[in-house]
Structure formats: C-alpha cells, structure tokens
Amino acid sequence: MALIHYISLNELEEILIHEHVADEMRYFVELTDKDKNLTQLHTNKFNAYKKPLGEFINAFPFLNSMKPGLHEIDFKKHTYTISINEKNGQRYYILYDETDFDARETFLIITLSLSIALAILFALWFGYWISGKIISPITRLSNQVGELQARQLNIILSDEYADDEVKLLAKAFDDFIHRLHLFVERERSFTADASHELRTPLAIIQGAVEVMVTNGNLTAEDSKRLERIERAARDMSQNLTALLVLAREPSGESVVEGQTDLSKIIEDVIQSFQDEYLKSDVELKINILKHTTINAPANIVSVLVGNLIRNAFIYTEKGSVSIQLEDTHLEITDTGIGISEQELPNIFEQGYRGSNAMQQNGSGLGLSLAKRICDYYGWKLTIDSKKGVGTTIRCFFEF
After folding, report:
1. Regions of the chain with pLDDT less than 50
2. Pairwise CA distance, residues 24 & 171, whole Å
3. pLDDT attached to residue 251
4. SS3 state of residue 143
5. Which residues, in sequence order, are bridge partners of residue 396?
6. To 5 degrees, how large is the angle CA 307–CA 361–CA 324?
7. Best exposed site among 65, 84, 103, 267 by fewest CB in 10 Å?
8. What's the pLDDT score for residue 218?
9. Does residue 14 form part of some domain?
10. What is the pLDDT of residue 392?
11. How many domains does the chain contain in total?
12. What residue numbers bound the domain in which 208 lies?
C-alpha cells in the first residue's frame, strides 16, 4: 500500500504540474500576443519570459541550451519545472518553482514511512498478544499435564475449559489418564500380590533347606544339591526384591534406603559362585583398593554385582577373571569369548541374547536387570568388549 501511494503521488504530481505549466504557457502566449510590450511576468511560483531567439536570460543562463518542451532541473537549491515554446521567431519560457511542493512531498513520505513502521510494530504486538490469548489454554493444559504426578491419575482436566477444541484435547488427555490409572492400579495390585505370594513359598523353601541341612544322614551329593536349592531360593528372593523396587517410581519415598559395603558383597558373591561357575583353567584375581560404601540396600547391590560376576564366570573358559574395586567404581575384566562389535549396542536390551552358543540356556535378563538397577539409582554402567579377546564392564557409583 505504501508503494502504491508513493507511485500514485509521483504520477499525480507530474500530471498536475505539467498540465498546470502547459496551461500557463498558453495563457502567457495569449497575453503577449495582445500586448506586444509584455515580455515577462513574475509571481511567487512562476517566472515567464518572452525573448527573441538567441537572446539570453541572465537570471537563468541554462535556458538557452534547452530545447522546446517540458523539463525539470535543480538550480540554486530550487527545483523547477520548465516549459519552452517557440513561435514567430520568439522563444517563450515558463518556470514553475516546485521546491515547496517537493518539501511537502518529502514530509509526506517521511510521515508515511513512520506510519508504516508504527503499523508494523502494532501488528507485531497485536499478533503476539492475540496469539498468546489463543494458545494460553493450550499452554495451561500443557503445564497441567506436565505437573501431573504418578498418584494424580484420577484428575479431570476438561472441566476447566470452554466448549471448544481445547476441551476436546483435554478430554482426550482425560481418557488417556483414566486408562493409565487403571493400568497403574493393575500393576500395583500385581506388585503387591507378587510380593506376598512369592515371598511366602521362598521363605518356606529356605526354611526347609535349613532343616534338611541339619540332618546328619545326608550324603555329600545331597548336601551339594541342597546348597544349590538354598542358593537359588536366595537369588530368587533377591531378584524379586530388585524387581519390586524397580517397579516403583524412583522418588525419595520409593527408593529403598540403606548403605552397603561393596567389598563385602563382592566377597559373598564370589564365595557362592566360584564352586559352581569358576573353572579350573580360569584364574580369579581380586583387587580391593578401597572399601566403598554405597547408598543402596544390600540385596539390590547383590543382584547387580552377582549378575556382572556371573557373566564373567560363565563366558570365560580359560584365562582370568579380574575384579577391581576402586573409590568410585567397580571394574570386572575377563578373558572370555567377548562380544562382537555389531551386538555390543544391544547388550543391555531386555531379553537380548547374542549369537554365542553359550547363551542358549540364558534368558538375556542379567545385564538388562543390572542396567535398570544402575539407571534407577543414578549410576553409570559401561562395557568394552572385543570378540575372542574378552570383556571389561565398569559400574560407576559417582560420576
């Protein structure tokens, strides 16, 4: 619109001024024809001259070099529209001083430009304001959804909104939250039932094994089998505890409190594993550089360390298994079969089993469970491995 106005203004100026100057030229010629002594006229804006061909006008020396017709020229800080006509050996000049008109035009252009700038600023402000008003219900809904807690799944969001598209969106969230609430309730019921129904038979099995062990008539083979039953029941109880803890949201209330001496857990795990898993061709190296205490219950830490050490024992046919405990992390290195580069990125996935034949009896849950425990407590678990060379796994308790 500004460009159209500017072009229109220039066109209008040219038409009006040129027509006005041409009209004044005709009028001046008629006057001089009637009055032969009249050779010039002067007003505030116009200067008219009648001169014989070749005669100069001292006030405007550039006129003699101009051809008949309409011209525009700047002279001594003035802008002139000039009309020149020749008739019967006489030369007629009309000079219109349009300096004031140009000044008003410049003022108008400046005013128009400022108006455009103000209109743009107003449009930006208004657009920002009206868009904020439009999306404010969506923003409020987003904040409400983002602030929902795990125990606030029975809340209704759509009642707070007008009957429009945002209310439809809020109703969709309400439906989803309701389904999620039912799902959480089912999971919570299952967790409680599993905790009760599984712990009881495990306690019975462990109690029965303790009674049977005290029987002096058992053979060495029977004692060994009872020890395996007792160890399996203990491992299952610890795994059950770990799984129940991981099923809860990691908040201050749900994390099981407790401090555990990591070196003591390592010793207990090795003692329970080495008779069953450690082979004669494998050397066990233990290097406890510092007795580290971590903020986690012993049975959870035992599941984590047990899975890591068990894997090292299982997949090492010969060579060594090295366990090193430092101030901030536990490092377990073996010279086993290793993991290929293609399989390494998937090694912590639940249920994932590599292509090694030694894994055919496994479920692929050991490393996945260990990773979930580390994530739950904010620890970091890393693994470096090369097929045919061995594996090093590190668990950082502070990083």
Report:
1. 252-256, 357, 359-361, 399
2. 79
3. 52
4. helix
5. 329, 380
6. 25
7. 65
8. 75
9. yes
10. 93
11. 3
12. 165-246
